[in-house]
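Model the whole thing, not chain by chain.
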Amino acid sequence: MSQDLLRLTDVTIEFGPPKKPIRVVEGVGFSVAKGESVGLVGESGSGKSVTSLAIMRLIGGRVVQGRIELEGRNLLDLPASALPEIRGRDIAMIFQEPMSSLNPLMTIGDQIGEALLLHGWRDRTARRDRTIEMLHLVGIPNAEGRLGAYPHQFSGGMRQRVMIAMAVACAPKLLIADEPTTALDVTIQAQVLDLMKKVRRELGMAILLISHDLGVIADVCERVIVMYAGRVVEEADIRTILTRPQHPYTRGLLRSVPRRNHEAERLYQIPGSVPPAGSVRQGCPFRDRCELSVSRCAEEMPPMFRFGSSQSAACWVTAAAEGVAQAGAAA
Amino acid sequence: MTALIRAENLGKTFGATGGWFRGASDQVRAVDGVTFDVEAGETLALVGESGCGKSTLGRLLLRLIDPTDGTIRFDGQDVTRLSSAEMRMMRQRMQIIFQDPFGSLSPRRTIGQIIGEPLEIFGLARGRQARRDRVAQLLDQVGLPPAYMDRLPRQFSGGQRQRVGIARAIAVNPSFIVADEPVSALDVSIQAQIINLMQDLQRDAGFSYLFIAHDLAVVRHIADRVAVMYLGRIVEVGPKRQIYDAPQHPYTQALLSAAPEPEVDTVSRRIILKGDVPSPSNIPPGCSFHTRCPIAQEICRRDRPPLAQVAPGQLAACHFARPNPIPLGDAA
């Protein structure tokens, strides 16, 4: 499909010594269209962050299989020397803790200017104007006067705004945001989520938002990919996920989120815990915690089944109940 | 119902007075004039954002730090006047559960030693075998196999660690437990397990919780009453149902609406507050919330509103609090 900006196919990532590898991501595939906002949701150990770092080729692990294509070009085939060109210009990334990504000894004006310079903004005045424009876009009051400020002079929420300004300064095609609001207070989180939507609207870029919080993803994203124990277990547009989830894990995750408007006698809980990385041997990784599991779940990893035009999920039981076909089969 | 804990006009100022380089601006008023009760057997949730003083308040109640002013009565007794030896014995009745239960514990000690320590200190299980039996029983109560007692903390997942932290807290049969963000670091699917466990244990043993959280959604299931803090003060407190269904303080309303929920079409109802939380070392005059409040008027910049009753059992500190609830969204 020519519409795809980013496409991951069968991506498998291993850590540890090659002779005793720990497989943390297995057979992951999804795509992000131009200008689309996609959420990658999962709990700790789901492999969501590792997957996002692999796109930027920032991981210490090995991508042992699969393709990561940006506009049809496999990023995994590129020499390391080609990467700085792509990072920032084509794909930019923001993280949970902006302080660890900002240089404490450089003014924010210089830091954003440096990113621009790296991507060909030679003219000093143009750089300065663009920096002010970006700081203004992300809602830093008195942007011009803050060019000479250092990161420690900003609050956590303001730092995340500066990070976003720096990330989008070169108008990347894709912004990868890894838990961008997890360290922020809820009222500040609401501001930053709103800002991300505004920036996306104004710059027309795609967003891949990684979060453990389905609420955050529902706020920003059009489509969501659910990961569990290193695999994609469900994918659908956001409304479908929220109203008709098909994978038992997605259902359990949605039911266990505490709601402010709703009170049950007891919170729904998924029994057990996420299996440690690399421990899943055979079959469905969720089967030990699943209320629906049958003997086949222990024997064979379910493929993705297509439940509707935008929805697919990897579950033998719900697929059989709905009588749906395997995704990728001729529709 | 009787008050197990009664805090009156409790205050804590950090930062030394005097000294060569210190001025009044170095002082942080972390908790300011806080008055509230915790009833026997109830759960009072204390909710607020970072820097609001909620953790400081929790530690003050246990006298892990000493208040600058005010009194704390525990079962009628003024604990602010107890000597440190008397306080030590009092601690058997009050325990704390941390966000990271092992943050302050040695990684080289086994789970059995960690849970067994308070038993030893308070002489609750004499002899090694008696202690092991009691630890086994506690592990079972918190849903861990008793055989885990010889394991080390690093072999446990986040949820299991919190179970150990809970076992250690309940080991001495306390009547009051401060739970400081006990589920904030846990995955969503594990949070529910821990909250349900805490509720079950309370039902069996009848102790009270002060449950500290930064998010109103998470405490909805466990709280009987909710207190909302902003910049060192309680701005609203009341029975759970009223706080969620008819919040009176604009900050409570914003906090309730701010957290995105995985539901279709909730975005439009959100109140987004402007600006950052002011620094606790430089608290705005008048109503300390006025710099971010969507409905602030002149009076709010000038006069600090008292925490006054707005409904039976519900108090709010707002000049514009009214008996009829403001529907969420209208204030945006």
